[in-house]
Amino acid sequence: MVLKLYGTPMSTCTSRVLTCLHEKSLDFELVPVDLFAGEQKQPPFLAKNPFGQIPALEDDDLTLFASSSYRSEQMSMESNSSELSLGSVVCM
Ligand SMILES: N[C@@H](CCC(=O)N[C@@H](CS)C(=O)NCC(=O)O)C(=O)O
Question: Domain of life of the organism in this record (predicted)?
Answer without folding.
Answer: Eukaryota
